[in-house]
Amino acid sequence: MADCGVASRRASETYIMEGRVKVNGRTVTEMGYVVDPGKDIVSVDGKRIHPPVNHGYYAFYKPRSVVSTVSDDRGRKTVADFFRNIDRRLFPVGRLDYDSEGLMIMTDDGEFALKASHPRYRVSKVYQCTVNGNFTKAHGDELLSGVDIGDDTLAKAAEVEARSREDGRSILTITLLEGRNRQIKRMLEAQGFTVLRLKRLAIGSLEMGDMKPGSYRRLSAGEVEKALKPYKSPQARMNEQRNAARNRNRR
After folding, report:
1. Distance between CA atoms of 235 and 45, rounded to whole angstroms?
2. Has 97 been annotated as catalytic?
3. What is the number of alpha carbons within 13 Å of residue 240 lying toward its C-beta?
């Protein structure tokens, strides 16, 4: 269903549990029910769905004061409002808070959304945030080791860089391999900081670049691959660069 652009994988599971999905006219409420797209007729709320011939992938700069959903019961502007002229049922991959901004990917490919979002695929997300106060190396080390934000396990960053500003604020670049709700804000709040601005810069190896708030562009096949590229540590990247340099010198 997610591949057909009906909704996200999680929302599709909800539709199934609510009895809104039928296969060959019979209501199906069990997860993992296998269908043959070439033979079986699948419908949601009485409307037949069809697997798309191909998928669409769009890099989108979500502005602040926009909800990262396709609808909002409070009447706020959503990410879907920017794609009214696209003849696909797109949904966002991952989320950004209402007051956060930056790179999102809109797609109708559920498998892609799973790989880009689930921690086991190790797709990194890079964020830039502005905080009040002086962020020290000790604070960065604590983020790398893990911070208690009230969940079952410590929340960790994969990489942290920081620089201080003359006005007493600090600019951080934080790389995550997990995506808990409001994770960066909760981690920094646990350290006593207030996040003043938060922007996502990259997903995997796909960078937002010079995109403007509210703009989007369709991704090439190569860019889709970059967005799913598994994370490599700074040491692993350095080793790759050294090996590449050695190979060039041998030629």
Report:
1. 51
2. yes
3. 6
The DSSP letter of residue 30 is: S
CA distances from residue 237 to 116, 202, 230, 240, 247 in whole angstroms, order as listed:
20, 17, 12, 5, 15
Residue 212 makes CB contacts below 8 A (sequence gap 6+) with 61
CB-side neighbour CA atoms (13 Å) of 13: 5
Q: How many CA atoms lie within 13 A of 79 on its CB side?
A: 29
Spatial separation of the C-alpha atoms in residues 133 and 216, rounded to whole Å: 34
Strands 42-44 and 26-27, by their bridges, are unpaired
Pairing outcome for strands 26-27 and 125-132: unpaired
Separation CA 117–CA 123 (nearest Å) = 7
Q: Are 183 and 155 in contact (CB under 8 A)?
A: yes
Q: Write down the catalytic residue from 40, 97, 167, 210.
A: 97
What confidence tens digit (pLDDT) does each residue in 178-199 have? Answer: 989 999 999 999 999 999 999 9
Amino acid at 146: G
pTM, two decimals, is 0.78
- The strand pairing partners of 22, in sequence order, are 27, 43
pLDDT digits (tens, 9 = 90+) for 61-108: 999 999 999 999 999 999 999 999 998 889 999 889 999 999 999 999
Beta bridge partners of 57: 107
Query: Exposure of 177 by Cβ count < 10 A (0-12 exposed, 13-18 middle, 19+ buried)?
Result: middle
SS3 248: helix
User: Is 90 within 8 Å of 108 (Cβ atoms)?
Assistant: yes
Q: Count Cβ atoms below 10 Å from residue 229 Cβ, excluding itself.
A: 15
Give helix 110-117 / helix 9-17 axis angle, nearest 10°.
120
